[in-house]
Amino acid sequence: xxxxxxxxxxxxxxxxxxxxxxxxxxLIPANISGGGKPSTAIQLDPHxxxxxxxxxxxxxxxxxxxxxxxxxTALLARVERDAVSAAVLxxxxxxxxxxxxxxxxxxxxxxxxxxxxxxxxxxxxxxxxSVEVEALxxxxxxxxxxxxxxxxxxxxxxxxxxxxxxxxxxxxVDPNEPVITIxxxxxxxxxxxxxxxxxxxxxxxxxxxxxxxxxxxxASADESADKGE
Length: 229
What we know:
Blueprint: E1 4-11, H1 19-24, E2 28-34, E3 37-44, H2 46-54, E4 60-66, E5 70-81, E6 88-95, E7 102-111, H3 115-120, E8 123-126, E9 130-135, E10 144-147, E11 157-159, E12 163-164, E13 170-171, E14 178-183, H4 190-198, H5 205-228
Parallel strand pairs: 1-4, 2-6, 7-10
Antiparallel strand pairs: 1-3, 2-3, 4-5, 5-6, 7-9, 8-14, 9-13, 10-12, 11-14
């Protein structure tokens, strides 16, 4: 069942390019849209957003906007981040009606252990990290699960039809889409081993001269020893 989080926000006057100044003040620009109402420009404190982002699944948000105290029921729709720093630039919220089904993405968690990992040093690959589901807002799960205990052989795969979800939650994913697979560990070829063995640091000019001098001295010593026999 979805959690509910209370969010405090303020109406936003800094629009478009002016939102940059808002971020410089430590505030996050955002919008609430949908539900047959006009889009509302808001701003919120990063601490309010932190609680939303760390919450599991798709929590129901009760956003109270000051001044005025109007409250919207919404889901987190999109988070825009800086490509370099990953700092949050903008957030979009989508209004929902608690009596109407909504679609949302929730995490996909694994259950059990895959025997092929231990038996054959197999590598467990998560092809799908989250899935889209549909349910009433209060029935949105924190996550859906898939049991990996049946992965006993290398190159075995689980598909979306193996995902477990509550009966009141509908999955929106191709049932034949690969979700989890076990791959064989990478084995180095003889050529790669030989290449790695042959990779040595090149000698400096001084080291090369010293090696040549040592070789010549050794050869001279051997020649003198031969003459003395």
